[in-house]
Design brief:
It is a single chain. The protein has 395 residues and is an alpha+beta fold. The protein is built from 7 helices and 29 strands. It has 4 domains: 158 residues, Molybdenum Cofactor Biosythetic Enzyme, Chain A (3-Layer(aba) Sandwich), CATH 3.40.980; 47 residues, Molybdopterin biosynthesis moea protein, domain 2 (Alpha-Beta Complex), CATH 3.90.105.10; 85 residues, Molybdopterin biosynthesis moea protein, domain 3 (Molybdopterin biosynthesis moeA protein, domain 3, Beta Complex); 72 residues, MoeA, C-terminal, domain IV (Beta-clip). A hairpin with a 2-residue loop joins strand 21 and strand 22. The longest helix has 20 residues. The two termini are 29 Å apart.
Length: 395
């Protein structure tokens, strides 16, 4: 077996080939940017008025409190010039600041009578007050949104502002999720006493959808000949083949053998971790193969530990390491990385992780309670209360 970190490094050394497509910006929300979004001009492109009121020279307020109104600078109109600096111009929010003025006094501070504005409050007024200065948000050519970012409604607003009706996005890889096991039946069927409904496939498809991806789902029987026939038909159709179950050493765990016969280059089979020790990874033609152990916790933990980092790397998405502090000590003497299911709470600004008590990696009920898991290192016989450990969210 290899370590969790060695397995991660090996998987991240592989490339996940992705294509791109052009979408109208209003259809692009939730997709990943395949190009930088650049400022096509300074932002704001002019000294912009931020409040309705009057514009004048701030220095004049030292000796003068009343100003004749010489005109109105409306939003969307060409820039006016204040010809006489002992006067003012009315200005509207969003308008360009008139020439020969450097501040804006809001109407709420003024009495206006007979086309004269008089300051009625004793407030400090400085140059550039209530003015959004040209280029203070970004300069022409600046990167406003970087490649690899997920597109949000706010991103769409920026794209529209810089004149981009369409944007290039990354097309997620095609994925198929294959469940194995003769004990599995469709979720809408009624199980016999010796059967269970197929829960891992919907769980994995949902985990992929949470990452902005769709996936097909297939069932593979625990019969070597049938398995080989079914898998042969999948070759060349998907960038990623995901399997849940049939990767351990049981009498009917034919998957590794069948994949080898189909030409898979096996790179990992067995990782020093709990749960998920029998995890399988390899390359088959143009596809990457992820074989997750069949117990629900093993499947979901391995998905987040090994597939998600590779996807984020391929998408160019930056990830930051999250940590959380244990709320109780956990003794663990095996030389394995322990992926401990936890619930999370924020207390006085600290993220705390409380272990979820469960009956093992096959406990689906308690898996649904967990917010994520801590990866506790293999080089310690006990993991201390109040110590921070790497955290992976399930959402």
């Amino acid at each position: 077996m290899i370590s969790v970190q060695a397995a991660k490094d090996l998987i991240l050394s592989q490339s996940l080939k992705l294509e791109t497509q052009i979408l109208p910006i209003w259809k692009a929300v939730g997709n990943i940017l395949a190009e930088d979004v650049l400022a096509d001009r300074d932002s704001p492109p002019f000294n912009r008025v931020t409040m309705d009121g009057i514009a004048l020279q701030a220095s004049k307020l030292k000796t003068q409190k009343s100003f004749a109104i010489a005109g109105v600078q409306a939003a969307g109109k060409s820039q006016l010039t204040l010809e006489k600096t002992d006067q003012c111009l009315e200005v509207m929010t969003g308008a360009v600041l008139p020439k020969n003025t450097d501040c804006v006094i809001p109407y709420e501070w003024l009495d206006i009578e007979n086309q004269t504005a008089t300051l009625k409050v004793d407030e400090q007024v400085d140059a550039n007050q209530n003015v959004h200065l040209k280029g203070s948000d970004a300069r022409k050519g600046d990167i406003l949104i970087s490649r690899g970012k997920k597109i949000t409604p706010g991103s769409v607003g920026v794209m529209a502002a810089v004149g981009l009706p369409n944007i290039k996005v990354i097309v997620p890889p095609k994925v198929v999720v294959c469940a194995t096991g003769d004990e599995l039946i469709p979720i809408e069927d009624t199980p016999l006493p010796h059967q269970i409904r197929n829960s891992n496939s919907p769980m994995l498809v949902a985990a992929l959808r949470a990452l902005g991806m769709d996936a097909e789902s297939k069932y593979i029987p625990d019969d070597k000949a049938s398995m080989k026939k079914e898998l042969a038909q999948l070759l060349g159709q998907y960038e990623v083949l995901m399997f849940s179950g049939a990767v351990s050493k049981g009498k009917f765990d034919f998957l590794p053998e069948v994949l080898n016969e189909l030409g898979m280059e096996k790179m990992i089979h067995g990782v020093a971790q709990k749960p998920g020790k029998p995890f399988l990874f390899g390359k088959l033609e143009n596809s990457l193969v992820f074989g997750f152990p069949g117990n629900p916790s093993s499947t979901l933990v391995c998905f987040h530990t090994y597939f998600k980092p590779l996807l984020f790397q391929a998408l160019g998405m930056k990830t930051t390491l999250a940590t959380a502090k244990l709320t109780t000590e956990i003794p663990f003497k095996k030389p394995l990385t322990l992926h401990q299911l936890v619930t999370l709470s924020l207390v006085e600004g600290e993220l705390l992780a409380t272990p979820v008590q469960h009956s093992g990696s096959g406990d689906l009920i308690h898996l649904s309670i967990a917010d994520g898991f801590l990866s506790l290192p293999e080089d310690s016989e006990k993991h201390k209360k109040d110590e921070a450990y790497p955290l992976e969210y399930f959402y």
